[in-house]
Amino acid sequence: MRLVVTGREGQVALSLIEVARGRGDVEVVAAGRPTLDLARPQTVFSALAAARPDIVVSAAAYTAVDQAEDEKDLAFAVNETGAGKVAEAAARLGVPVIHLSTDYVFDGAKDGAYVETDQTAPLGVYGASKLAGEQAVAVANPRHLILRTAWVYSPFGKNFVKTMLRLAGDRDEISVVADQWGNPTSALDIADAILHAAAVLGQDKRTAFGVYHLAGGGETNWSGFARHILDASRALGGPHGRIRDIATADYPTKARRPANSRLSSAKFAAAFGWTAPDWRESSRTVISRIVADSPVSAR
Fold this sequence. Notes:
The chain is an alpha/beta fold. 39% of the residues lie in helices and 16% in strands.
């Protein structure tokens, strides 16, 4: 099976390439700029056709949450129009599309974990553009899996785990928001789940397409996640420091964030027989890799 993933440098794309390495039954190929550029929709079909996919994984996106408030047209061009073109190209090639979306399609007002049938209500441009992208993908290709995930981290790119470890190398105390809750999710786990789902799609044509939540097991708030990161780093001889709880109001940002990003992944587990590990377990794996590869040492 040949999976073609959009975006060469994204956390999910790089994780897919790594997780697929050594598996004899799947090949992952990344397609990205300048050959495939979601901001230039005319490039999408030719790039995907040349890559000869059995399944397309639509992972490339505009993800600058605060910047999107000032770049609405670009955010929608990439996350709605571009994503729709990827799904349309997959449909023209006769293959399914697995599209990555986000917890930011919700406003965070629910008390408890969100399920797929809950009402969407994005708080900002980024979430609205991703929701529009979900709708464009669904219209363009009926053979779609839309996977909403949250709080993604990995050994690759920029993410919260890397930021906390970098800051701990420079200061004794870090202020972190304590009133936003969610499921930290390893991109390596997302990749494993995608490969598992792709195998099911290849074997069972009756698979239910549609929207699924896919997030790490367990929940925490940002400051709890930060404490875990620095405690794990300390145990490995890496940078560490104190975490000071603050409220969202104490750390104003241009875009509003949902106070509750918790996602229930029960539907995905039931459909595909795959459940994410607890976030503490997965994050320790990633933290150990980052600490081992980092020139920053404990102070």
